[in-house]
Amino acid sequence: MITFQFRAMNTVIDCCFLCREEEADRIAAQAEAWFRYAESKFSRFMPNSELARLNRMAGKRCFISEAMLEVLLLSQSYRSLTGGAFEPLILPALREAGYMDTFDQMAGIHTSNRADAELQPIADSYVLDPAMKSVVLPPQTEIDLGGIVKSWTAKRLAAFLRETADVNRGYINAGGDLTVWSGPDAAAQTWTVGIENPWRVEADFGFLELVNGSAATSSTLGRRWMTSRGTMHHLIDPRTMLPSSSDAAQCTVTGPDAVECEIWAKTICILGVREGFPLFSRKTAGRFESLAFTLDRETYFCGEKSSLGTRWRDMKPDHVYDTEHIHHETYRPESEHP
Predict the structure, then answer these.
(1) What is the pLDDT of residue 85?
(2) Residue 113 scores a pLDDT above 90
(3) Is 115 exposed, middle or buried (0-12, 13-18, 19+ CB in 10 A)?
(4) CATH architecture of 190-336
């Protein structure tokens, strides 16, 4: 079992793989090289990235790589699935909120907004032509794929290692977006993942037990900065084009797909528990579960009640929304169920 980490995409990438000793260095190098490649494609902070070139050509047809096409198709699909809560065309709003540089460069800096412009919600999405491998962004818009690309990169790397490199057991954590897999003797190969308590960072709130699957955590508390308008964070609500003001401070989602876990964790943080949980339950049909922390320091679980104590271990949420007994339109605490 080899364990290593490196920094890419402005976060720490943690990896743990079971492989032959003579393969360890090569596999570690492949993992880091893949993340570097994805960063060179999708970073908005690299002026020569494919994403930066795409943004400069807004309003014109732009030919794109297979990787960009795949991520843009996924982004379009998740925009529809979440009712627009996940919106890639938010880069102007991030800049307007003061998120001009990487967070590492911004840390501890008090920044002013670029302007006092009031941005309008995005009316039209980009237009993809998969056959031509091309896209047209709406004029005067810019795209940011930071809300999807870390989990996509981890998912693609995991698939390569399992299917091509014969790595039968592994763990990839890209800044809170993680995926794990185990070999044939899966019952003896559970991965235990701690869930950070945002109000007591020195102690985990509980643990996730995963054999094969993924989890993602999103938060409005980590990437925050001061501006002339007050405290800002990086999760933009597309309805207002401002940092979200929902009751959700942090959300962890687990399920079979790393990318969808990341999308729903961000969506619930943006929409909040009351609006986000019903949408999440309706659209995922029990395939995913979530745990949300709200600003009033309450915890909300959405999933099968039987998962508490098994998949979700050593935790007692304040409110349990059992998806087996909840009407899709109205969410009530477990104690209020008939």
Answers:
(1) 95
(2) no
(3) exposed
(4) Roll (3.10)
Residue reference for tokens 């094969």: 212
pTM above 0.85, yes or no: yes
Judge whether residue 39 has pLDDT over 90.
Answer: yes
Mean pLDDT of 239-251: 92
Tens digit of pLDDT for each residue in 204-214? 999 999 999 99
How many residues does the structure list for the chain? 338
Q: Which residues contact 29 (CB under 8 A, 6 or more apart)?
A: none
Q: Measured between alpha carbons, how far is 247 from 150 in angstroms, rounded to an integer? A: 25
Split at pLDDT 50, 70, 90, the class of 231 is confident
Name 306's Cβ contacts closer than 8 Å, sequence gap at least 6.
Answer: none
- Give the torsion through C-alpha atoms of 176, 279, 145, 294, to 10 deg: -40
Among 87, 65, 69, 67, CA closest to 78: 87
Q: How far, in Å, CA of 87 to CA of 80, rounded?
A: 9
pLDDT at 198 over 80: yes
Confidence of residue 337 (pLDDT cuts 50, 70, 90): very low
The runs of H, that is alpha helices, within the chain are: 24-42, 50-56, 66-81, 91-96, 103-106, 149-163, 258-271, 273-284
- Supply 212's token pair: 């094969």
Residue position matching structure tokens 């699957």: 213
Q: Which residues pair with 14 in a beta bridge?
A: 5, 173
Helix H, strand E, coil C: the string for 150-200 is HHHHHHHHHHHHHHCCCCCEEEEEECCEEEEECCCCHHHCCEEEEEECCCC
Q: Which amino acid is at 219?
A: S
Residue 109 has pLDDT above 70, yes or no: no
- DSSP H or E stretch at residue 219: strand 213-219
Those residues whose C-beta lies under 8 Å from the C-beta of residue 216, and which sit 6 or more positions away, are 151, 176, 177, 178, 252, 253, 258, 261, 262, 264, 265
Segments making up each domain of the chain, as ranges: 1-44+146-168+175-181, 49-87+125-143, 190-336
User: Which amino acid, 226?
Assistant: M
- How far apart are alpha carbons 4 and 14 in whole angstroms? 6
